[in-house]
């Protein structure tokens, strides 16, 4: 039997509930000190989609997806797990 290897590994945190996707923009994260302004600018320059029902973008190691019923933040590098946890805690302390 051939050995199996993992080719892609990552971590995600998904919160389910009533979410206002429009607030989860890079500018909001920067305004509250959760990311640096340079990181917000990086996200704005990348692939970003903002709509009242869905916000999705990528910056640094994070991939954000906010919908009306859930917020998901993921990292493809498991070594970024603590940074992911800290970001989520920071978001919900503000909220």
H and E string: EHHEEEEH
Largest sheet: 5 strands, antiparallel
Specify Rg, calculated over alpha carbons.
Answer: 14 Å
Read across the widest sheet, the strand sequence of neighbours is 1-5-4-3-2
Kindly state the percentage of residues in helix. 25-40%
Total beta strand runs:
5
Helix tally equals 3
Terminal-residue CA separation = 50 Å
Instruction: Name the assembly state.
Output: single chain
Judged by helices, strands and strand pairing, the structural class is alpha+beta
Unreliable spans are: none
Provide the residue-averaged pLDDT.
Answer: 90
Strand content: 25-35%
Tertiary shape: globular
What key attributes describe this structure?
single chain; five-stranded antiparallel β-sheet; 31% helix
